[in-house]
Amino acid sequence: MARIEDARKTFDKFDRNGDGFVTPAEFQQAMVEMGDRHYTVGLAEAIVRTRDANGDGVLTFEEFFEKAKDL
To answer: Which residues form the signal peptide (predicted)?
Structure first.
């Protein structure tokens, strides 16, 4: 249970506007704030695309957590 709670906290850091979705721009912003100053929106788009199960261009918590479980 703690693992899903940790994943939710991390997801919430990426979901900048709190709408339940992480856009590539939000993903990029979060990565820059975590110290990767060279993280581009293009790279974020590629990462989101690899994790976006339904192809809508954004990540839901479920999509985010599904990949986090593999780490």
So the answer is: none
Structure tokens at 34: 């975590």
Question: What pTM was estimated for this model as a whole?
Answer: 0.87
Q: pLDDT band at residue 70, thresholds of 50, 70 and 90?
A: low
Q: Are 65 and 10 in contact (CB under 8 A)?
A: no
Domains and CATH numbers, the chain: 2-68 (1.10.238.10)
CA terminus-to-terminus distance, the chain: 16
- Within 10 angstroms of residue 40's Cβ, the number of other Cβ atoms is 13
Residue 59 contacts residue 48 (beta carbons within 8 Å): yes
